[in-house]
Description:
Layout (H helix, E strand, L loop, with lengths): L5 H5 L7 H15 L8 H17 L2 H10 L6 H22 L7 H9 L5 E2 L4 E2 L7 E8 L7 E7 L2 E7 L8 E4 L15 E8 L5 E3 L2 E9 H6 L1 E7 L2 E7 L8 E4 L16 E8 L6 H16 L1
Parallel strand pairs: 3-7, 9-13
Antiparallel strand pairs: 1-2, 4-5, 6-7, 8-9, 10-11, 12-13
Helix pairs in contact: 2-3
Amino acid sequence: MEYIDYYNTLGVKKGASQSDIKKAYRKLARKYHPDVNPNDSEAERKFKQINEANEVLGNAENRKKYDEYGKDWQHADEIEKARKAQQQQRDYQTQYSGGFGEQDFSDFFESMFGGRSTTDFSGGRQIKFRGQDFNAELKLKLNDVYNTHKRTLTVNGKNIRITIPAGIENGQTIKIKGHGGLGRNGGPKGDLYITFSIENNTAFKRNGDNLYATIDLDLYTAILGGEIMVNTFDGKAKLKVKPETQNGTKVKLKSKGFPIYKREGQFGDLFITYKVKTPTNLSAKEKELYKELASLKATK
């Protein structure tokens, strides 16, 4: 694997705090997000690099491994295991033969990652290395994730059938176990991490499991009250309007929001805001009636 300077990718110094790394990531993610840069392949490439860097540096444990082992950080646990085994062998040979032998640890490390040998000298076994994790981005529309469905992805030339749960959120990442890179010396495969980029192609605003919408309400219904039909995400609903409803009034339609992730049959709420519309193009008779109403109001 080629060494990538993740600190440089995020534009921070090696000693940066986790808070600074988080701020840098958010700033760059907003700048290069596909929604902000549609059909821009360079911005998409940088967005993927930024996310990869954040997966490493944004996690304290991963960052520690990266700082110590660089491009081999994903094999840190195996390296530590090999280091301990090497020390045990060194202690053993020092005790019984007065020296370590022909190979020191630097050569031993090189043998694991330079292609010469992968033998665990403490037991004569080959060290098994887990395969590299893969990261992919899946672009969907908001109405694509209203229902649970299956989709086929092609990763490294291989088709993978996955289930996309209803209610998954923009930026959420799921793990597909065992669909990453091949292991070495019989080691397990890595995993595939899929990050969802969800474009809202609807008239609703989504916030978690709840949906929000603004609808026009004619002045007469706002004053007198009545019933109206409103759009929900999956159809229409009848809504009662109270007399003398004010502009900006909010009402809640329970369980008419978005599906709750991995809680089958449960939904958030839909919040409707009324925007009272003032009538235009009034006839002479209508104007006269409004004047009459105004005079009645003034005499109260």
